[in-house]
Design goal:
11 helices; single chain; alpha/beta; 43% helix; Spore Coat Polysaccharide Biosynthesis Protein SpsA, Chain A; 287 residues
Length: 287
């Protein structure tokens, strides 16, 4: 079995509260044919000190561990900087508040990567476990590509964090569009996956644990996410109407109004109810 070289990139900024979990989840992987690159946006807290403190631990495992810290123009600019440094056949982006589910995630994924390569599939993704800041489970997301591919041109419905991009994706399509602040991953993947002839490979396992509270989590940023998703579709010449994005925008606006009238706690309860109950029923109906 082939043992591909994997490049893992983390873009971070003022991530001292969470970055240890991210770094240690990479360090603890049983698969060592990897490199780890951290791109820091000139953090003002002790993120860089934490990053530096792990250098010798990675060296002991024979893993190339590199980092830079300088101002950037957002997460996709940082990810592009990481891309300029990679040597891997497969490239992974993991957020600075995310971490691998267990220490065998990479080891258990190798057979899937080899299968994808042999079938000319350039993107591999799995399930994500969403937790709150107390690491309490909110939900598990991720569905097979054959189920998701029809709707992908209308809305981002696959998990990007922790997924695997074959290096040829970036040779063919270039890097991320750094004019985006939230939906640049969707715009990039649309370049490859907007046509049904191109496929992605879904892994049934949970790959990543994602803390809620990232850049796309607040209500105002969710509205921006909708707008950027519409922009991504336009750039990729997808002009058909997206009812998913329209409904999403409407839901967020309703919750914003409730928050204004009755406070954040009430709107949070409503949002959690929708996510756990309504979306849960929809998933059961479609399974």
């Amino acid at each position: 079995m082939s043992t591909p070289f994997i490049s893992i990139i983390t873009a971070c900024y003022n991530s001292s509260a969470t970055i240890k979990d991210t770094i240690e989840s990479v360090l603890d992987q049983t698969y060592h044919n990897i490199e780890y690159i951290l791109i820091d946006g000139d953090s003002e807290d002790n993120t860089v000190s934490i990053i530096k403190s792990y250098k010798e631990f990675f060296k002991l495992k024979g893993i190339n561990y590199r980092w830079i810290s300088e101002k950037d123009n957002g997460i996709y600019d940082a990810m592009n900087k990481g891309l300029s440094l990679v040597h891997g056949e497969w490239i992974v982006f993991i957020g600075s508040d995310d971490y691998y589910k267990n220490n065998k995630v990479l080891e258990n994924t190798i057979s899937n990567l080899n299968h994808a390569k042999s079938n000319n599939i350039k993107y591999v993704y799995g399930k994500i476990e969403h937790v709150n800041n107390k690491k309490e489970l909110i939900e598990i997301s991720g569905e097979p590509w054959q189920k998701q591919k029809e709707r992908f041109p209308y809305i981002m419905n696959i998990n990007h964090s922790g997924s695997f991009h074959h290096k040829t994706l970036f040779t063919i399509h270039g890097k991320f569009n750094d004019t985006f602040k939230i939906a640049g991953d969707y715009e990039f993947l649309l370049r490859e996956l907007k046509n049904e002839v191109n496929n992605a490979l879904f892994i049934e396992n949970i790959l990543i644990i994602m803390r809620e509270g990232g850049i796309s989590s607040t209500l105002s940023n969710r509205l921006n996410l909708v707008r950027e998703s519409q922009k991504a579709r336009k750039i990729n010449k997808i002009n058909s109407f997206s009812k998913e994005l329209t409904y999403w925008k409407l839901r967020v606006r309703i919750i914003l109004i409730i928050s204004f009238l009755f406070g954040d706690k009430c709107s949070s309860i409503l949002a959690d109810f929708y996510r756990k109950v309504i979306l849960g029923k929809q998933k059961r109906w479609t399974n």
